[in-house]
Each structure stands twice: as structure tokens, then as C-alpha cells.
Design brief:
With 240 residues, the chain is α+β, with helices and mostly antiparallel strands. The protein contains 5 helices and 12 strands. Strands 4, 5, 6, 11 and 12 form a 5-stranded mixed beta sheet that branches. Strands 1-2-8 form a 3-stranded antiparallel beta sheet, with no helix packed on it. Strands 3-7 form a two-stranded antiparallel sheet. A hairpin with a 2-residue loop joins strand 5 and strand 6 (82-84). Helix 3 packs across helix 4 (142-153). The model is unreliable at 7-15 (pLDDT under 50). This is DUF4412 domain-containing protein. It comes from Flavobacterium chungnamense.
């Protein structure tokens, strides 16, 4: 039993020591009476003398309760030191223009924005399919092709001892009470709140989005990371 515990500790330590995730600062600005904007500045450091790679979309975030098999950094909120596992108060952005649409009250302007964005992403979709076929891709399922190519585009490479800096921009609508199923959460303005980021880097559960050759390559590559890497906690402003 002691030998097994030692081996598990050694494996965990070895994996977790490959990269470090650090929140550097959190800037918050009230942009209206009903919205507060946050900029979460953080960095990822390769602490080894080897080049490391992983799947990650680094500039948005998703709540821990909704973060299964995600490509986004996962966040946890601590209230007076206690982790509250509720889907909120921040939500991931599916596309970068999402906020612009949500903030537009003019019906005609919103309709035009939606049309422009639809056209933009339809063109992107078609270009990705076309490029895949031109490069010799053999799969004929366009939905699979798009998902596959977007996954491959999410690969981040860190050279030995390299640090990359990122910013996550997100908003809070100043709602304080959340209830999802049987979970309740209240952001008391007098409490202390902290946020923590985790990178749930996953290469072993991406089989349906990769070709057999791609999956085999990533699975065998010890420098292509699989594991969870957690940042420091930093205080975040949910006060009045």
C-alpha cells in the first residue's frame, strides 16, 4: 500500500510540475449599473527543459460545474474560503461578438449584426472544410471535419521554460442569487470572494474528434499534456 501511495504521489507530482498556471491580476470596472467587466490576467509557464503541447482555448472561461471535457480554463469561486460549485456568475463566450449582440437594444441593428456574424462564421466553416480537403483529408463528414480542425487549431506549444501571458475578459450582470437544480448561491457583498483557474488538459477523451493516426500520435507523446493544472487563488470584487 505504501509503495502504491508513493507511486501515485510521484506520478501526480511529475505531471503537475510540468507547467505552472498563475493568476497575476484581476481588474474590474463597472460599465453600467447592471454590469461589471473583469479582466483576468494570467500566465502559463513550462517549467521543464522540453517542449510541451496541449489543447486549450485560453481567452475565455467556464464554470467548474459545466466544465466537463472543455477546452476552456475552468474557474472555481470561493466564498469566505468555501468552494461554491454553481454554474455562474461568469459564462463562456461561444463567439467573440456575442456580447455586442446582447448589448444591442435596437432590433434592426441586432438583426443586421446576427446576419453579418452568421455570414462570417459560415464562410469560416466553408473555408475550413475546403482547406481540409485540399490538404488530403479523407473524412467526408463536414461536422466532424470542422470539429477536428478547430481542435487542432487549439494546440498551444510552450518551448522549454517559456511563459505565455493571457487575458480572459468576462462580465458579471450583478445578479447575486443563483439557483440551479438544488444548488443555491448568493454573492453577499460583504463576503470575501476568490477565484481559481484550472486547466483540464485532456488528450485521451478526444478520440471522436481525431483521426486514428492523430489520436495515436497524441496518446503516445509524453510531451503532449494530459492532466489538471491549478492556479493560485486571487481575490475578486463582487462588492457594491
Amino acid at each position: 500500500m505504501r509503495l502504491l501511495q508513493y507511486l501515485l504521489f510521484f506520478i501526480t507530482f511529475t505531471v503537475s510540475s510540468q507547467i505552472e498556471v498563475t493568476i497575476d491580476s484581476i481588474i474590474s470596472v463597472d460599465i453600467s449599473s447592471k454590469k461589471r467587466a473583469f479582466s483576468i490576467n494570467y500566465h502559463i509557464t513550462n517549467t521543464t527543459d522540453r517542449e510541451l503541447s496541449f489543447f486549450l482555448i485560453p481567452n475565455t472561461l467556464i464554470a467548474n460545474s459545466a466544465g466537463s471535457l472543455t477546452l476552456f480554463p475552468v474557474y472555481k469561486i470561493y466564498q469566505n474560503g468555501i468552494f461554491e460549485d454553481v454554474d455562474g456568475p461568469f459564462y463562456e463566450k461561444i463567439y467573440k461578438e456575442q456580447e455586442e449582440i446582447e448589448e444591442t437594444d435596437d432590433v434592426e441593428k441586432r438583426k443586421k449584426l446576427i446576419e453579418e456574424i452568421t455570414k462570417k462564421y459560415t464562410l469560416e466553416y466553408n473555408n475550413i472544410i475546403e482547406a481540409y480537403k485540399k490538404n488530403g483529408g479523407t473524412n467526408t463528414d463536414e461536422a466532424w471535419i470542422y470539429k477536428n480542425q478547430k481542435l487542432l487549431q487549439s494546440i498551444i506549444i510552450l518551448k522549454p521554460n517559456e511563459t505565455k501571458n493571457y487575458i480572459i475578459k468576462t462580465n458579471w450582470n450583478k445578479e447575486r442569487y443563483y439557483k440551479i437544480d438544488d444548488k443555491e448561491f448568493y454573492l453577499n457583498e460583504n463576503d470575501k470572494f476568490e477565484i481559481e483557474l484550472s486547466l483540464s488538459l485532456d488528450k485521451l477523451n478526444r478520440k471522436t474528434s481525431l483521426s486514428m493516426e492523430e489520436y495515436s500520435k497524441f496518446e503516445k507523446d509524453n510531451n503532449f499534456l494530459h492532466g489538471t493544472f491549478t492556479s493560485n487563488k486571487m481575490e475578486i470584487n463582487f462588492g457594491e
